[in-house]
Structures are given as C-alpha cells and as structure tokens.
Design brief:
The complex is a heterodimer of chains A (291) and B (156).
Chain A: H1 25-50, H2 59-76, H3 79-83, H4 88-108, H5 111-118, H6 121-131, H7 134-139, H8 142-158, H9 161-165, H10 169-191, H11 202-225, H12 233-265
Helix pairs in contact in A: 1-2, 1-5, 2-4, 4-10, 4-12, 5-6, 8-10, 8-11, 11-12
Chain B: H1 8-39, H2 52-82, H3 87-112, H4 124-155
Helix pairs in contact in B: 1-2, 1-3, 3-4
Classes of the chains: A mainly alpha (291), B mainly alpha (156).
C-alpha cells in the first residue's frame, strides 16, 4: 500500500542515479517534509523583507526560527530519522528534536509577530481575527495543549500505536505532525512571545508546566521498565533515560523562560527592561501601528 | 507571585523565600541527580519494584524541584534589583532549605512512601540515621545563621 511506485524526482532536479528507481511512501514523505521546511525558511525570510526596514527584525529571532526548522528537519529526515524506524533510542532523540526543542525554538522565532508586521493592514486584521477564534483560543490554552501533548505521548507509547507507526508512513506522519503541532501550541501557551490576548496567569502556566514535567518524567521511568511492543530491553532503557534527561534540559529551559516572563512583568518602575524576552508575555503586545 | 513594595520587611521575607526555595530545589534536583544518581550511583534510575503511586509522587518531586530552584533564583534577582541583598540571611535560608528537603525526603519518600532507599544491599539504619540527622543539623544551622543575619541587619 505504501509502495505505490511513485517517482520521487518529479519535483525538479532529477539527475540522481535513483531517478528511475521506484520509491516508496517514505521517500515521498521525506521530500514533502523537505519542501515544508524550505517553505518555512523562505517564508520567514520573505516576511522579514516585507516587514520593512523601519524597525530591524531582531537577528536572534531569525536565528531561533532557523535553528527550530533545522531541529525539526534533523528529527524528520536524515540519519536520525532513518535510524528511528528501528531503534527506540534514535526514535527518542528524534522525538526530543521534533516535539520539544524545535517547538521551543520556533516559538522564540515569533512567527505571528513577524507575519503581522509583514502583512498589509487588512491581512494583519484577518490574522488577528483568526487568532481570536474559539478553536485557536482553546488550542493555546495551557491545560488543553498540555493534555494533548503529554496525553499523546501516553497513547503513543502505552498502546499499539508505536509499532503501528513504523509500519505505515501515514500514521508515522500523523504522529510527528501531532507531536510538532501540539508541542508548538503548548510551548506558545507557556512562554510564547507572540501576542496572546488570552494568556493564562503565570500561576496557571506554572502549575501546568510542573504537571507536564512530572508526567514526562513518570512516562520516561515507566518506559524504562515497560518498553513499547517490539523494543528490546537495552534499547528501551537507553531511550527512556534519554527521554528523562533530555526532557529535563528542555523542561528547565521552559521553566527559566516562564519565570523570566514573570520577572520582567513585576519589574519596578524605572528599571531597565530586560532583553531576553522583549515583549512582556503577560500583555498582548503592540504589534503594528506604533510610531 | 504578587507585586511587592520595595520596603524592608517584604524584601527580607522575599530573601528568605528565595533562599528556602533554592535550597529545597537544589537538594531535590541537583544534589540528588549529580551526587546520588550519577556520582555514587546509590539510587537506581528506576527501582523496578516501585509502585505507581510512588513513581507519580517522585515525578512531582522532580518537577517541583526544578521549578523552585529556578524560581528561587529569579526571586533573588528580584530582591537584588530593588535593594542590597542580605547574603548571610539568604545563605542561611538556603542551608535551611536543603535541610528541610532532605528531612522530608528522608522521612516521607524513603520511609513512609518507600519511593526508593538511600542505598541498596546494605544495612539501612546507619544511612537513615546519618541522612535524617544531617538534615536536622542543616536546618538548625541554617535557621540560626538566617536569624542572626536578620536581627543584626534590622538593629543596625
């Protein structure tokens, strides 16, 4: 079913030695992922240009976005992704890249703020209206996003989904899309720098983050003893420890960013503004039209 | 996490809270992770007989440990940008925090919940006595240092 003899080089420069060899769904998926990553990079660069030169777009935002795209790419195509189909440890490395590190870096790239600056007024208004719709508001609510993100992992590793995902390119793609999208929504709901008119209080966000870190570490330890079907014990243990300690690194980064947002929001009058997170995350930022 | 005014008592209490949280946090995350998991390897990463309740409790300990470590440091930074930090007072609170966490860990998670033991394959009594005794000692020393620093500061 996956081997439907599509030719992966219909997309352009087809001069490789494999251009006449039939390729399966995995190769098609890889080409699609590469295209999406390319669109993400080029789109960001175009938006940066369109945003104009009145106020320079911070280089660190571009850096974060590009690094985020690269992280997602490293987890989805290439050696790690290929090894991830047979090795649980490599799968976990890919999962950390796609589900945790890439979302954090992409969120720090502030794509919505950039889009609002780049779009003409009517387009920006339309985007703002879209962000205020009920589905977006619900999806970027930390409790909802946290449950979707952590709950998705529980379903993946404690049901038959994990072996299924490595037999079907479609399930594989859906799982990764879920991990990336909800990872982004969750990260944005906690430490997003883009305008969020319905940002939860720092107490709620802290509680959700602590709950998420706890769930992540509990799942990692559970997997240490109970690897998913078809995973060898040693591989399962190495992967579980990678999930635990690697998850900790990103979790601590999230805690630092969240509390830094609090630190900036309670700064005394007259104190210098901190530069790590420029837009105070507790307020919807003034995005365009400022003098 | 509310706004504070910049007067002395508030900042003093915030210094205490910062030190206490940071002390508890490093005891929970850094000391436990580096000393007992990685260096001495006395604790196992996961004791296969651990119950689900204990596993969940440990997960929350772990998460809260990291959170309060970072929170304590941001509180310290907040005090520092408003006034001069009473370092002795803060240090006393840190030591008391370490002692408090070790005490809770030693009594609640090792003995009452049985999440894990200090070391495996040995007679536990001397370890438990040392653990809980040193925890109480740290708490007392920390509270004394904190108290002395707080009183000399306010009387001067």
């Amino acid at each position: 079913m996956q081997h439907d003899h599509q030719h992966g080089h219909d997309h352009g420069d087809g001069d490789g030695p494999t251009s006449s060899v039939p390729v399966g769904g995995w190769e098609v998926a890889e080409v699609l992922v590469l295209l999406a990553l390319g669109v993400a990079l080029v789109g960001y660069a175009v938006a940066r240009r369109a945003a104009g030169t009145r106020r320079a777009w911070p280089a660190r935002r571009t850096l974060c976005w590009s690094a985020g795209v690269l992280c997602a790419g490293a987890g989805l195509v290439g050696p790690v992704a290929t090894a991830a189909r047979t090795s649980f440890t490599a799968h976990m490395a890919a999962h950390l890249l796609v589900g945790m590190l890439a979302p954090l870096l992409l969120v720090l790239g502030a794509p919505v703020t950039l889009a609002l600056r780049a779009l003409p007024v009517t387009g920006a208004r339309r985007l703002t209206r879209l962000l205020r719709t009920v589905p977006v508001r619900v999806a970027t609510q930390p409790v909802v996003a946290g449950i979707m993100s952590a709950g998705g992992l529980w379903v993946l590793y404690t049901t038959g989904l994990y072996p299924l995902m490595h037999g079907s390119v479609l399930v594989h793609a859906l799982v990764h899309a879920h991990v990336l999208v909800w990872g982004y929504a969750f990260t944005a709901s906690l430490v997003g720098v883009d305008p969020d008119p319905h940002r939860s209080s720092v107490v709620v966000r802290s509680g959700v983050l602590v709950g998420f870190v706890a769930a992540h570490s509990v799942l990692a330890r559970w997997l240490y003893a109970h690897p998913p079907a078809g995973v060898e014990a040693v591989d399962g243990r190495t992967g579980a420890q990678l999930m635990y300690y690697g998850g900790d690194v990103v979790d601590v980064l999230l805690i630092v960013l969240l509390l830094h947002g609090w630190y900036v929001s309670v700064r005394p009058r007259g104190a210098l503004r901190s530069t790590l997170v420029p837009a105070a995350p507790n307020r919807p930022g003034p995005v365009r039209g400022d003098p | 996490m509310s706004r504070v005014d910049d007067t002395g008592p508030h900042l003093g209490r915030r210094t205490d809270l910062s030190g206490f949280l940071f002390g508890c946090g490093i005891a929970a995350s850094v000391i436990d992770l580096f000393l007992f998991h990685l260096v001495l390897q006395w604790h196992h990463f996961y004791d296969l007989s651990t119950t689900r309740v204990a596993l969940t409790a440990d997960g929350f300990f772990h998460a809260v440990g990291w959170f309060i470590t970072v929170w304590g440091l941001f509180l310290l930074a907040d005090v520092r940008r408003r006034a001069e930090v009473g370092w002795a007072r803060w240090a006393g609170a840190v030591v008391a925090g370490v002692g408090f966490f070790q005490l809770v860990d030693g009594v609640v998670s090792h003995k009452l919940l049985g999440i894990h033991q200090i070391r495996y394959g040995v007679d536990l009594l001397p370890y438990d006595v040392t653990w809980i005794g040193s925890a109480v000692l740290l708490m007392v020393v920390g509270l004394l240092v904190r108290h002395r620093a707080a009183t000399t500061r306010s009387s001067s």
